[in-house]
Design goal:
The chain is α+β, with helices and mostly antiparallel strands. The longest helix is centred in the N-terminal third of the chain and has 25 residues. Strands 4, 5, 6, 7 and 8 form a five-stranded antiparallel β-sheet that branches. It folds into three domains: about 60 residues, no CATH class; about 170 residues, Nuclear Transport Factor 2, Chain: A, CATH 3.10.450; about 110 residues, no CATH class.
């Protein structure tokens, strides 16, 4: 049976093994010892066989070195070592993929401090007044956090600022949806850091109502940066409009001019419903406003839906409403959609009787009367003191 000689430590191992049991190096096969040729007693003893022995002539022969298996084994060893090194670097946080994994792992645990620590220029994002959603409160509940993140292989890109950059694809679950989001990792000189791995949330259709995202108040801002995850957006109800709520996640978009990829979370509310009792309140105020208009003696009462063009001076008018219109509210009006007000409308049945006395341009006293139809135009708006109705 052939013996196996380790090229590194020289140890013999069984021929069916490809690695040295002592040093784990690849081995080379050598032949079994050749029986010595009979010689005279004075002849020198035969030397031991070995891979380094060569003779120009004589009774001994050595099998040539098997260099091809050695080279192949070393190549495999180098490849395995490289793969292990890359895996160790990723596991230890020394790769773009590892930084992305650590970031989403921190978010999954609600650890905002750790997440910010992995971002480039993190100090600017610690201003909670400017970035209210980059706080622990916005990730207080697990349903707001990204889940089951899967990080793909990084691709080097020229988009890095201040050094090399890598685009790392990440897929995660949020609000029972799968979200695909690329994050940018840069070599900041002090290690790998994420370049603004955030989502821009934009609110529309709140109609003057106070807005919260994951329970955090947005204040007067309609746009805010947020960590990746799910966003429960609520427009609080008031005396005029009922509460509206929705849940949104990040969506990929491109800036039209630059073609830059950004991630937006659109939060556009549908047409709001009126708050309970608001319709009756508005109708009552509208009828009260009409009665107030009827007490005027002017030809053009201010803030009233009816009036006369008198061809003279010194006019006094007596108004009597003979038919009140049915007032309704149009919260779906596109003209008012971005406003906190709602538009008033009617059914066109309003009528008023008038009696006017005036002096015409010749100096003669005149008296006239008649009936006119009128339409209501106006708005209703929520104020700290309740609903305010204005007629025009």
């Amino acid at each position: 049976m052939e013996s196996v000689l380790c090229f590194r430590c020289g140890g013999d191992v069984p021929a069916d093994q490809q690695w040295c049991g002592c040093c784990a190096a690849p081995v080379v096969t050598v032949p079994a010892p050749i029986p010595p040729v009979p010689t005279s007693p004075a002849a020198p003893a035969a030397p031991l066989p070995g891979p380094s022995l060569t003779f120009a002539s004589g009774p001994f022969s050595v099998r040539p070195k098997r260099t091809a298996p050695i080279i192949a084994a070393v190549a495999v060893l180098a490849l395995v070592a490289g793969v292990l090194a890359l895996g160790a670097a990723r596991y230890a946080g020394n790769s773009p993929e590892a930084v992305a994994e650590d970031y989403f792992d921190a978010l999954a645990h609600g650890d905002v401090t750790a997440a910010l620590g992995l971002m480039a220029a993190a100090d600017m994002f610690r201003d909670t007044a400017r970035y209210p959603l980059l706080t622990g409160a916005a990730l207080a509940e697990e349903r707001y956090r990204p889940r089951d993140p899967r990080v793909g292989d990084a691709t080097e890109t020229a988009a890095g600022i201040g050094g090399r950059g890598w685009r790392v694809p990440v897929s995660y679950r949020a609000a029972d949806r799968t979200v695909d989001q690329n994050v940018l990792v840069i070599d900041s000189g002090g290690g790998y850091r994420l370049q603004a791995p955030l989502v821009l949330l934009g609110v529309d259709g709140e109609r003057g109502r106070a807005v919260t995202v994951n329970g955090v108040a947005l204040g007067r801002s309609r746009n805010a940066y947020a960590f990746p995850g799910a966003y429960e957006v609520v427009a609080a109800g008031n005396t005029l409009l009922a509460e509206s709520r929705l849940t949104t996640v990040a969506q990929r978009a491109e800036v039209p001019v630059t073609g830059q990829t950004v991630y937006l979370a659109p939060a556009r509310f549908d047409v709001p419903q009126l708050a309970g009792g608001a319709q009756e309140n508005i109708r009552g105020q509208a009828l009260t406003a009409l009665d107030r208009c009827a007490t005027s003696t002017e030809a053009q009462p201010a803030g009233c839906p009816f009036g006369l063009n008198i061809p003279g001076t010194g006019a006094t008018v007596r108004w009597t409403i003979t038919a009140y219109p049915v007032v309704s509210v149009r919260s779906d009006s596109s003209f008012w959609f971005t406003s906190s007000a709602v538009q008033l409308a009617d059914d066109g049945t309003g009528r008023v009787h008038w009696s006017a006395r005036y002096t015409d341009y010749t100096g003669a006293a005149k008296a006239q009367s008649g009936d006119s139809a009128f339409r209501i135009y106006g708005s209703a708006q929520a104020t700290p003191n309740g609903i305010q109705v204005s007629l025009t």
